[in-house]
């Protein structure tokens, strides 16, 4: 493999040095792969100067050798530029520029094609790099280990408790240290606005374990997280510091209020460090033990750090001891969790502990596989696009080389060497690739802007990944474009080598068949790729449409949502209640608003809150636990959300504390426990048989939560009757409107801030946007694939047009003779169309086959569409055939207008 | 033909490695940690400026190790002033191509 690569690269080296150059590189690589190689100074006397003596070194890996071969490319370029007659290089460049200027359309098409291919690749490669490849910007990232506790239902990647963490840290034998971190939302006054920031509770050893050095001041150190410290410290992320503190070094030492608790800023993290989790980039880090101070709502005063069964810490990261394997760590933690289970039976010691090496950023646990699959899907799609672009450019260059036969023959006849010609053609293609790469970087910047509106599966906003061109990606583009240049530049160069000078001068067309075959093969390849991309696009578009058209059971249009967290602001439940009612009153009279209500967590988000209930009149099976999901909602909730009531009535302002307790249940619940009967008037109890009963006053339609959620029994409690604790947390207002959502959003924001200028809005969005987030992978997939598939189709059309036009031109004389002998124009037409029809037909069949095999890989992202959806496959086939016929027909028609006399005379 | 050599840190590292007896391209890469795409063009520049000369290794040595003969590079006398300049400008060079544990041994 490397030998072939070196041989290709050596074409760049000036001829008189080529053999020596190749021998040198081949010898170095042979030595590097040698099982007993010596490296270091040869002369032991010199070694005394303070270096290693010549010693045995391990053979280089295949990858390391390949990387060094990339250096050979630079070496060859250097020699080409510096060791050859400089005038000659300049001459080549000038000649190339002149020939580009002579064919502006050709040059433009090639450049645009390359720019799109390279630009799209660079943008998506940046994404792949950030998500999958780039190591964490910390010391020795490959020594890091993620630690998870197994939870109920056997799910292995769950949170741990603080006492668990302390035991893992102090009692393991395979890790140097273990640090803990946990995301927490905090309110922070910045300027005159109170805003929600992403905080991270962090153990004192976190930054030390990772080996992250401060950008400014200091980071959190052991000691900062001793419990009961009078002074609390906070660290800002570089991005947050530069966005909200104007990059002012004086920010260090300043005091800030987080959840109304004073903290002192003591440092800023370095710019590349964005935490260790993909979907949770912290803006502020605070010591773990200060959780006591910032805890809100139900956690206030609960001393959560001491409760072993309260498993809420999602981030545990360790650094392994030198020489310890992943296997040994796993065994160590198996033993430890076994011991802990015996020691803490009452507190449910950890069921099991999972450890996994990490070196890059950790993907979201639940969506990690989807993120990987999605990103790789994007990468293969743009990779295919680059292949199409290369095929197209090669096609164009082949056509051009053909039309330059005479020019090349003249130069050969005048004594130009083959090497010189090859060099000149290579200069041209590398120049093209270089210009294309530069334009591609511009395209990549545009693509970043376009991508930033999307998010990956698991709600990872692309915007939050901080995509920007860096050295590695730049390297990727340069290598991609140079390889492209070499690949398509070689074809005409090799062609020139085989050319017969006399034949070419006489304009003998003998070699034309080979070119036509090559171009037909390229056309087939292009068709395959275009078909696969178009089918992918079709499937994604259908999934998106199905997703949007799904009847969710509630209104998704003209609905604004805003969330506030009362706990963060230390509201009492009376204050919260007052705020809720006052805000609803004010929002209701805003222009365009038809109704306002609120809930803890409205759909489409899955509620996740469950309770165990007793159904009066139903005898549970032995061991049957009646678990019901629930939400607490405001008056007129069902009217506002557009959820139809099958039976009974909506909740009203009269359902408040002191009135009879009532609930609304969903259809699934009604059918499960009162099949065939009307549940209105029946009762349920929560927390035991002796507590007061809740009377069912209504049955609501099931609503879709999540997207593929199977409806579960669900009960809606009136928030005004709920215990006061509920009002310490987060609630979401839903506002049904008739008018412009965007205008309404700003009016709602003003309404909130009139009531309490310090209240931080957690989220302010429309239901439409909320739904769109759920369908983001489909949206992103359909947009990208449709764009790229369209581009592929256009490129294939150009290819078809070119092949037929070429065939017509080449067979001009034959057509002339046939016409002279009385052939029908329609016959000639069909013969010419066939020259493109055969390669396109082969490509279509192969493309449909390839798509059938490949779309299965994307089936996770398909929504109500089979990966082999016949309608999509059929539509794409019809589209490709129609476009191909049209693209072939236009140039073929020219054949029928050939004037036999002229065609024969032109020879 | 080429532009005069600029004394960069990479230039200094390669000179230093050559002075300490690393003779082959890949050995210099091993010792300095630089990329092959940096080291080789520098060696070519040195050769053009007559700071190094290159020779082929005797065929017998290569045959004994059952591999093709390698090219090696040696500093010429005219490299001495460049080397001095490099060491003055970059004192850190003293520790670069060596390995710390070996320094301890030789003390």
Structure description:
- The complex is a heterodimer of chains A (907) and B (107).
- By secondary structure, chain A is of the alpha+beta class.
- In chain A, 50% of the residues lie in helices and 16% in strands.
- In chain A, strands 3, 4, 5, 6, 7, 8, 9, 10, 11 and 12 form a ten-stranded mixed beta sheet that branches.
- In chain A, helix 1 packs antiparallel against helix 2 (15-32).
- The relative contact order of chain A is 0.10.
- Residues 43-52 of chain A have low confidence and may be disordered.
- By secondary structure, chain B is mainly alpha-helical.
- Chain B contains six helices and two strands; from the N terminus they run H-H-H-E-H-E-H-H.
- Chain B has helices spanning 9-19, 25-32, 36-48, 59-64, 80-89, 100-106, and strands at residues 52-56, 71-75.
- In chain B, strands 1-2 form a two-stranded antiparallel ribbon.
- Residues 98-107 of chain B have low confidence and may be disordered.
Structural topology:
The complex is a heterodimer of chains A (907) and B (107).
Chain A: H1 2-10, H2 15-32, E1 37-39, H3 44-47, E2 55-57, H4 62-82, H5 86-102, H6 104-133, E3 144-149, H7 162-171, E4 175-190, E5 193-202, H8 206-210, E6 216-217, E7 233-236, H9 238-244, E8 255-258, E9 261-268, E10 284-287, H10 291-294, E11 315-320, H11 326-343, E12 353-358, H12 368-403, H13 405-413, H14 418-451, E13 455-456, E14 460-461, H15 471-498, H16 501-505, H17 512-549, E15 559-565, H18 573-588, E16 593-599, E17 610-615, E18 627-633, H19 637-641, E19 645-648, E20 662-666, H20 667-673, E21 683-686, E22 694-700, E23 714-718, E24 730-737, H21 741-755, E25 761-766, H22 767-774, H23 776-810, H24 812-820, H25 825-854, H26 870-896, H27 900-905
Parallel strand pairs in A: 5-10, 7-9, 18-23, 20-22
Antiparallel strand pairs in A: 1-2, 3-11, 3-12, 4-5, 4-11, 6-9, 7-10, 8-9, 13-14, 15-24, 15-25, 16-24, 17-18, 17-21, 19-22, 20-23, 21-22
Helix pairs in contact in A: 1-2, 1-4, 5-14, 6-12, 6-14, 6-15, 12-15, 12-17, 12-23, 14-15, 17-23, 17-25, 17-26, 18-21, 23-25, 23-26, 25-26
Chain B: H1 9-19, H2 25-32, H3 36-48, E1 52-56, H4 59-64, E2 71-75, H5 80-89, H6 100-106
Antiparallel strand pairs in B: 1-2
Helix pairs in contact in B: 1-5, 2-3
């Amino acid at each position: 493999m490397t030998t072939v690569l070196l041989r290709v690269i050596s074409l760049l080296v000036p001829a008189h040095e080529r053999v020596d150059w190749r021998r040198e590189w081949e010898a170095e690589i042979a030595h590097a792969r040698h099982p007993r190689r010596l490296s270091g100074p040869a002369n032991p006397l010199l070694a005394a100067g303070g270096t290693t003596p010549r010693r045995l070194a391990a053979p280089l890996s295949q990858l390391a050798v390949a990387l060094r071969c990339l250096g050979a490319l630079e070496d060859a370029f250097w020699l080409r530029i510096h060791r050859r007659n400089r005038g000659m290089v300049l001459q080549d460049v000038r000649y190339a520029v002149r020939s580009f200027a002579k064919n502006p359309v050709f040059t433009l098409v090639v450049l645009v094609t390359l720019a799109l291919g390279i630009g799209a690749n660079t943008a998506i490669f940046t994404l792949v790099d950030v998500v999958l490849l780039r190591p964490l910007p910390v010391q020795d990232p490959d020594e890091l280990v993620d630690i998870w506790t197994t939870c109920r239902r056997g799910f292995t990647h769950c949170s741990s408790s603080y006492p668990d963490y302390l035991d893992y840290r102090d009692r393991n034998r395979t890790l140097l240290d273990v640090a803990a971190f946990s995301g927490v939302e905090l309110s922070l006054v910045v300027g005159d606005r109170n805003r929600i920031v992403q905080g991270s509770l962090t153990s004192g050893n976190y930054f030390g374990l990772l080996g992250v050095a401060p950008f400014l001041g200091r980071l959190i150190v052991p000691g900062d997280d001793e419990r009961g410290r009078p002074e609390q410290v906070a660290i800002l992320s570089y991005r947050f510091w530069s966005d909200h503190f104007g990059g002012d070094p004086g920010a260090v030492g300043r005091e800030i209020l987080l959840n109304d608790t004073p903290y002192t800023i003591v440092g800023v993290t370095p710019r590349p460090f964005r935490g260790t989790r993909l979907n949770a980039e912290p803006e502020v880090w605070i010591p773990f033990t200060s959780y006591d101070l910032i805890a809100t709502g139900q956690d206030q005063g609960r001393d959560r750090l001491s409760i072993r069964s309260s498993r809420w810490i999602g981030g545990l990261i360790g650094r392994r001891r030198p020489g310890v394997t992943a296997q040994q760590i796993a065994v160590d933690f198996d033993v430890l969790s076994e011991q802990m289970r015996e020691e803490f039976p009452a507190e449910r010691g950890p069921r099991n502990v999972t450890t996994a090496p990490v070196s890059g950023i950790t993907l979201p646990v639940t969506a990690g596989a989807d993120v990987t699959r999605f990103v790789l899907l994007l990468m293969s799609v743009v990779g295919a696009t680059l292949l199409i672009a290369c095929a197209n450019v090669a096609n164009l260059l082949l056509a051009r080389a053909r039309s330059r036969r005479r020019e090349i023959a003249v130069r050969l006849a005048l004594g130009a060497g083959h090497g010189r010609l090859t060099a000149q053609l290579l200069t041209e293609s590398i120049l093209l690739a270089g210009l294309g790469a530069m334009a591609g970087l511009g395209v990549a910047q545009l693509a970043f802007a376009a991508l930033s509106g999307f998010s990956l599966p698991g709600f990872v906003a692309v915007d939050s990944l901080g995509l920007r061109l860096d050295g590695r990606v730049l390297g990727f583009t340069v290598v991609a474009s140079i390889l492209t240049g070499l690949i398509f530049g070689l074809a005409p160069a090799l062609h020139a080598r085989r050319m017969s000078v006399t034949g070419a001068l006489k304009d003998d067309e003998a070699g034309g068949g080979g070119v036509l075959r090559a171009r037909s093969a390229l056309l087939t390849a292009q068709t395959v790729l275009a078909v696969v991309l178009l089918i992918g696009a079709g499937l994604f578009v259908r999934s998106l449409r199905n997703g949007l058209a799904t009847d969710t059971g509630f209104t998704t249009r003209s609905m604004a949502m805003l969330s506030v967290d009362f706990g963060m602001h230390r509201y009492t439940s009376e204050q919260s209640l007052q705020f809720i009612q006052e805000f609803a009153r004010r929002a209701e009279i805003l222009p365009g608003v038809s109704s306002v209500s609120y809930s803890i967590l409205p759909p489409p988000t899955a509620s996740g809150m469950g309770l165990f209930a007793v159904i009066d009149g139903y005898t549970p099976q032995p061991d049957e636990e009646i678990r019901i999901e629930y939400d607490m909602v405001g008056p007129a909730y069902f009217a506002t959300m557009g959820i139809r009531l099958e039976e009974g009535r909506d909740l009203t302002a009269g359902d408040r504390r002191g009135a009879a307790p009532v609930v609304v249940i969903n259809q699934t619940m009604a059918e499960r426990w009162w099949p065939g009967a009307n549940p209105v008037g029946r009762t349920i109890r929560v927390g035991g048989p002796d507590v007061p009963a809740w009377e069912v006053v209504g049955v609501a339609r099931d609503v879709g939560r999540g997207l593929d959620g199977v409806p579960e029994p669900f009960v809606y409690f009136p928030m005004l009757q709920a215990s006061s604790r509920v009002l310490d947390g987060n609630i979401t207002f839903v506002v049904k409107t008739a008018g412009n959502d965007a205008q309404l959003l700003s009016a709602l924001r003003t309404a909130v801030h009139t009531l309490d200028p310090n209240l931080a809005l957690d989220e302010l969005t429309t239901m439409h946007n909320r739904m769109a987030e759920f369908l983001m992978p489909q949206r992103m997939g359909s947009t990208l694939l449709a764009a790229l598939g369209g581009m592929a189709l256009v490129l294939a059309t150009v290819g078809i047009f070119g092949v037929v036009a070429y065939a017509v031109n080449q067979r001009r004389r034959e057509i002339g003779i046939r016409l002279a002998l009385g052939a029908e124009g329609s016959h000639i037409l069909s013969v010419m169309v066939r020259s493109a029809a055969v390669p396109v037909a082969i490509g279509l069949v192969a493309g449909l086959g390839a798509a059938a095999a490949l779309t299965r890989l994307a089936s996770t992202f398909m929504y109500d569409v089979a990966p082999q959806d016949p309608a999509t496959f059929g539509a794409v086939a019809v589209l490709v055939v129609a476009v191909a016929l049209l693209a072939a027909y236009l140039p073929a028609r020219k054949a029928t207008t050939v004037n036999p006399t002229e065609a024969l005379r032109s020879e | 033909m080429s532009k005069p050599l600029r004394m960069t840190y990479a230039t200094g590292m390669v000179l230093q490695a050559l002075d300490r007896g690393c003779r082959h391209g890949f050995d210099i890469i091993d010792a300095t940690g630089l990329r092959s795409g940096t080291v080789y063009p520098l060696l070519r520049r040195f050769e053009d400026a007559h700071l190094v000369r290159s020779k082929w290794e005797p065929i017998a040595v290569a045959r004994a190790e059952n591999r093709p003969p390698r090219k090696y590079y040696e500093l010429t006398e005219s490299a001495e002033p460049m080397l001095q300049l490099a060491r003055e400008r970059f004192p850190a060079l003293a520790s670069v191509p060596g390995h710390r544990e070996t320094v301890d041994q030789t003390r």
